[in-house]
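Notes, Module 5: Reading structure tokens.

Key idea: the token line is not a picture. It is a compressed description, and you learn to read it the same way you learned to read a sequence, by spotting repeated patterns. We will look at two proteins. The first is printed below with its tokens.
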Amino acid sequence: MSVEAIRQVAAFALRYAAALVPELLPEGRRQGSEWWSRNPARADRHLGSFSVSLKDGRWHDFASGDRGGDLVSLAAFVMSVSQTDAAIWLARRLGLDLPELEGRPGATDADLQRQLQNATRESEARTLEHVRQVQERQQAAAERAQRLWRDARRASPEHSYLQRKGLRPLALRQRGSELLVPMFLDGVLANLQMIAPDGAKRFLAGGRVKGAYAAIGRRESATRLYVCEGWATGATLHQHTGCPVACAMNAGNLLPVATDLRERYGQAFDLVIAGDDDRQTEGNPGRTAANAAALAAGANVVFPDWPDGAPDHLSDFNDLAVWSVRHE
């Protein structure tokens, strides 16, 4: 079996991604240049938690952190087979006769080999162009984030979202009716999360999210550092423990943030993943992602300890704090 043959199959398959991806993930829909689906490896209710780029074949499960860089790895994941078997399936599906891939005697037809090599070059060029475009969008978003943050005022303690969550504004700023949550990457402001009074959240279009986080509290004299999903959860943890918190903003970002912090600070902190407990969502993506991040970063993990009578729709530490105050 040749690694190069697998790479060539992946590149050739990319030409037919618009037909192959729906075949692999039939319970989905096209959204622009992506295919949004449910994760086929778990009981997942919501489209969009699992996405595949129809341009470069990259796929990502935002709940579990599972990801891959091409359609061979996608087929292997969906069908629970090896990369070799997935490549063989794709080759047969596309009508490619590749003796080397299947371990049969003989050589690949010269004309087919040229097609495969051309497809590989096209794929590599497409990937480089995609990376360039993504980097340009991220840089533009970072520059816009820095302008908006500079011009915003300090957040009002009377903001309805903060009132509803029982939180102080801490270091947040406000633009119009929206709270601005700064997200940093390598010490540089890379993106903003904007929170409307009704709790609706959005990031700047094109902005970097992976690996970026909102920092709450000072690390200088701390011995424990929490990593969580949302800002409200992080603010609640900080207000109750005094410890610094890194807010990853979503379940899929817990792992890259936690592993980066462990690599950066080593054992200087007792690293704790404070996970959401999505009890009403099949597969509990919050708990799944928190456990995966803790395992990868060598961290401890904690979840809300629900008292008797706490309704099942509560999922994070802020939900628990707000409910507890109302039921004292």
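Here is the second protein, with the sequence above and the tokens below, as before.
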Amino acid sequence: MGLEYLVVCGTAVIVSGLTLFSGFGLGTVLMPVFALFFPIPLAVAATAVVHLANNLFKVFLVGRKADWQVVARFALPAALAALLGAFLLTAFEQSASLWSYSLGGRMHEVTLLKLIIGLLIIAFAFFELLPRFQTLSFDRRHLPLGGVLSGFFGGLSGHQGALRSAFLIKSGLTKEAFIGTGTVSAVIVDVVRLGVYGATFYTAKLGAVPKGLAGLLLAATLAAFLGAFLGVRLMKKVTLRTVQLIVGIMLIVIGVGMAAGLI
């Protein structure tokens, strides 16, 4: 599993540092990388493990700053919606192939799950790239709706960060409370969806967990910690448009490849 370690851990280091100023979340970029080597449900679950560990570390640092009233209004609906999203992920995995085709002498299969996740990767890449979406925000009264949307997509594909930020940014929170509240909310969603993923792998048998995955997850988690550590000390800018564009274009390419059955 040398190549998997190199690509996944290298991505985790870079992306974890970039999340501090590029706008993209760790899960948004890391999940497609896991999907290059593992089935999509396993890739989403593996990313959730790294995401949870990284956020638990952040909770230790900033969790005490969380606004618990906002957490209750946002994270509880998010947790319930994450259950639905996670169950749909496992249901889509068992759906039949939509179509197949030959390209370059190889057969490629388009499944409902690959099509949905690929389109979501593309959509959230544009969500992060287009200026009009970067300034998107919602009134505090819409927090429960934001929780439902963020939790649902978090459970289905791991894309929860962008929507979470859009709904929390106008909640009247200080910068510290915003970070703490978002981190605590992310942990709650991660715990719920991991419970569903774990139960599904054992009951529905979507695929045997590959040998050595635990070691890869540990290495990726430590790499994410290292990336965050380096990012805090080396990066001074809050945003870096060039990096954001490169990451966004790469995500769109991966999303198109996944939706087309090439990945």
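Summary for the second protein:
- The chain is about 75% helix and 5% strand.
- The longest strand covers residues 97-103.
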